[in-house]
Write a structure and sequence with these properties.
The complex is a heterodimer of chains A (353) and B (357). With 353 residues, chain A is α/β, with parallel strands linked by helices. Chain A is built from twelve helices and 14 strands. Chain A has two domains: 205 residues, Thiamin diphosphate (ThDP)-binding fold, Pyr/PP domains (Rossmann fold), CATH 3.40.50; 128 residues, Rossmann fold (3-Layer(aba) Sandwich). In chain A, the strands form three sheets. Chain A has a seven-stranded mixed β-sheet, sandwiched between helices. In chain A, strands 9-11-10-13-14 form a five-stranded mixed β-sheet, sandwiched between helices. Chain A has a two-stranded antiparallel sheet with strand order 1-8. In chain A, helix 7 links the parallel strand 6 and strand 7. The longest helix of chain A is centred in the N-terminal third of the chain and has 15 residues. Helix content of chain B is 41%, strand content 9%. In chain B, strand 2, helix 7 and strand 3 form a beta-alpha-beta unit. Classes of the chains: A alpha/beta (353), B alpha/beta (357).
Chain lengths: 353, 357
């Protein structure tokens, strides 16, 4: 699956891994540019020189402007429709833009550029035009355990929304879950010939750390990964939810229940065979998704397994998702919004009862 | 420059020029033609008449029931596309609108492949996967017809950004209508082009109507070109029925863009002769008198009268150009009707650029 790498490793956070992926691709290919609101932030002012004050809302683009200059690292006005459209046009004419939209919640401001332009250009021009662009979309919230206060950003800055994007033919939708796969998927996304959305969970940015090789490597788009093997049931996680699945599997193992855990990694195109093969072995499936349930990836995966793997199932497919509500503000409410490993364990036990 | 009395409907058309002016643009109409090389004049006539022939042929085909899908005729506005493209190099980019046949032909598209596209054939510009509202030919710098009003303009800004980053010295022209001028994307695009000092020509084709909605209802400013001031760029108003006026304004904007001085806005006052689309009757929302006044200022007729009366071009050579255009359309229809339809497997191709397991 993953390319063999032999370079030195060091510990990086998820955001640092994204940063390194972008940096390596910008060094490799002069046509790679970066655009977004405050992706440098302040650089160019007399007292700062070519040093960013922000480096992106999540600091994932920090330092890029110092190395690559303002012509390739473009701070944009608050103008999503304009700059995502400019990225589409730039991609159509020889560049490979990496665009950061500060939070996925803001895609409403530029949705046509994703829905009708980037996603469909290659198809409707009969293959004549390619739109090799990456759209980085920080998403999600933390959920509260009442020791911390959750994300606390409320209904318009905490959403997940990747199900909306996965619905659009022509867009590839990636959801890395670790620093390691964030770097590999980001590099694969930049090198892909078409539009690729990379969903980055806000609360993995500094929390997820891993030993990351210094060199470039790619993780293949369109492949899910089995990250823990087991034969009693399959837990299928998306993005940050994968960590919940691992926690749940650990706890279930103490009771002698061996859960297999799949990290979906790519929502579109979905790696159906890996999921079906797993269900064929375990006969039970729980999909864990931070998005709301109607028309969601969780339901989509459940439906595909019900449609194509019905004969292998010993129990109904279950989903654990956010409730059908906007994201609440108060910590005590957010606590009940984001799925928890306890919920996953509870559903798993029901399936095996 | 136009006198206000020349406008078909005074409320549709502003007066004067806002923003910076250029010497070339101040030339009187009578001498405009002499200032343009003969070969370019012939090219302008050839392209304008070819656009008209394409659209009139298409109207006949549609009336006979050829299933072309929705089409938006460019008839009446030929001078705008041709005047702008005459000022561009082959390697420059244009982004087009839903009313895009004229832009494609002006930039050099092959009418046979365009017609084949409208017939949904595999030999079409888009291999039968786009239709009238997505005609694209990047080999001639035509980034695509775009029927989501205003979006193509943002792509032109991206193409200009691409030219700047790659140091290619290309410029990009974005066509948009008076209707699109109210779309937020266009304002964002103008602001970006201005702050990044990009070589973009924002070409507004003010034909008086967005579908059936008149411009004086929908646009708060007296002239759309007035909005250039908000983005610190020159705004020019030209007679869109005079190909030479459009050409000189576009040339000034191209020079400015290539010199690294940023974008320009050119508002071309023009008129579409037919309805918004093939089955729209414009007399439901505009008068026959207004149409007659507009058609009296027809861009092709004026061009022909002017170059003949000034003894720059001869009637016979213009006749030969028109005849050749008709022959090309006959060939185009034959080519389109005889071309194969796409293989059913084409439904599934080109969804992604790179396939994955």
């Amino acid at each position: 699956m993953t390319q063999k790498v032999v370079s030195a490793v060091r510990e990086l956070t998820f955001s640092q891994a994204i940063n390194e992926a972008i940096r390596l691709e910008m060094r490799r290919d002069p046509n790679v540019i970066v655009m977004g609101e405050d992706i440098a932030g302040g650089a160019g002012r007399a007292h700062l020189g070519m040093v960013d004050a922000w480096g992106g809302a999540l600091r994932a683009t920090r330092g890029l402007i110092t190395e690559f200059g303002a012509e390739r690292v473009l701070d944009t006005p608050i103008s999503e429709m304009g700059f995502v459209g400019a990225a589409v046009g730039a991609a159509m004419t020889g560049l490979r833009p990496i665009v950061e939209i500060m939070f996925v919640d803001l895609i409403g401001c530029c949705f046509d550029q994703l829905l009708n332009q980037a996603a469909k250009m290659h198809y409707m021009t009969g293959g004549q035009v390619a739109v090799p662009m990456v759209v980085r979309l920080p998403y999600g919230t933390r959920g509260s355990n009442l020791q911390n206060y959750g994300g606390g950003a409320g209904a318009q800055h905490s959403q997940t929304l990747y199900s909306l994007l996965a619905h659009i033919p022509g867009l590839k939708v990636l959801v890395p879950s670790t620093a390691y796969n964030a770097k590999g998927l980001m590099i694969a996304a930049v090198r892909d010939g078409g539009p690729v959305v990379v969903m980055e969970h806000k609360f993995l940015g500094s929390a997820a750390k891993g030993n990351i090789p210094e060199d470039s490597y790619t993780i293949p788009i369109g492949r899910a990964e089995i990250i823990r093997t087991g034969h009693d049931l399959t837990l299928c996680g998306i993005g940050r939810m994968t960590h919940l699945c691992l926690d749940a599997a650990e706890e279930l193992a103490a009771d002698g229940i061996l859960a297999e855990v799949i990290d979906v990694l790519t929502l579109a195109p979905l790696d159906e065979p890996t999921i079906l093969e797993s269900v064929k072995r375990t006969h039970r499936l729980v999909v864990v998704d931070e998005d709301t349930p109607t028309a969601s990836m969780a339901r989509d995966i459940a439906a595909r397994v019900a449609e194509k793997g019905f004969d292998w199932l010993d129990a109904p497919v279950k989903i654990v998702t956010a409730p059908e509500t906007p994201v609440p503000f108060a910590a005590v409410l957010e606590k009940f919004y984001v799925p928890t490993s306890e919920q996953v364990i509870c559903v798993a036990r029901e399936l095996l009862a | 420059m136009l006198e206000p009395s020349q406008y078909p409907v005074s409320s549709l058309f502003g007066t004067g020029v806002v923003g910076t002016s250029t010497d070339k643009r101040q030339m009187a109409n009578s001498s405009n033609y002499r200032a343009i090389p003969r070969a370019r004049l012939l090219w302008m006539y050839e392209r304008m008449t070819l656009i008209r022939e394409f659209e009139e042929t298409l109207r006949q085909l549609v009336s006979r029931g050829v299933p072309t899908g929705p089409v938006h005729y460019y008839v009446g506005q030929e001078a705008v596309a041709v005047g702008v493209c005459a000022a561009l190099d082959a390697t420059d980019w244009i982004a087009s609108t839903h009313r895009g046949h004229g832009h494609a032909i002006a930039k050099g598209a092959d009418v046979r492949r365009m017609m084949a596209e409208l017939y949904g054939k595999s030999t079409g510009t888009n291999r039968g996967k786009g239709g009238s509202m997505h005609i694209t030919d990047t080999s001639i710098g035509m980034l695509g017809v775009n029927p989501v009003v205003g979006m193509g303009v943002t792509h032109a800004v991206g193409a200009a950004l691409s030219a700047k980053v790659r140091g290619s010295n290309q410029v990009a022209a974005a066509f948009f209508g008076d209707g699109a001028s109210s779309q937020g994307a266009i304002h964002e695009a103008m602001n970006l082009a201005a702050i990044w000092c990009l070589p973009v020509l924002f070409v507004c084709e003010n034909n008086g109507y967005a579908d059936a909605t008149p411009v004086e209802y929908a646009v708060a400013a007296k002239n759309i070109a007035d909005r250039a001031a908000a983005y610190d760029m020159p705004g020019m108003i030209v007679d869109g029925q005079d190909v030479t006026a459009v050409y000189f304004a576009a040339e000034a904007a191209v020079d400015r863009g290539r010199a690294g001085n940023g974008p320009s806005l050119i508002e071309c006052k023009t008129y579409r002769y037919y309805g918004h689309h093939q089955s729209d009757d414009p007399l439901r929302y505009r008068t026959a008198e207004e149409e007659a006044l507009a058609k009296a200022r027809d861009c092709i007729k004026r061009f022909r009268e002017q170059v003949i009366s000034e003894q720059i071009l001869r009637g016979e050579e213009l006749d030969a150009i028109e005849l050749h255009g008709r022959q090309r359309l006959d060939e185009a229809v034959k080519f389109a009707s005889e071309s194969p339809v796409p293989d059913p497997s084409e439904l599934y191709s080109n969804v992604y650029v790179t396939a994955h397991p």
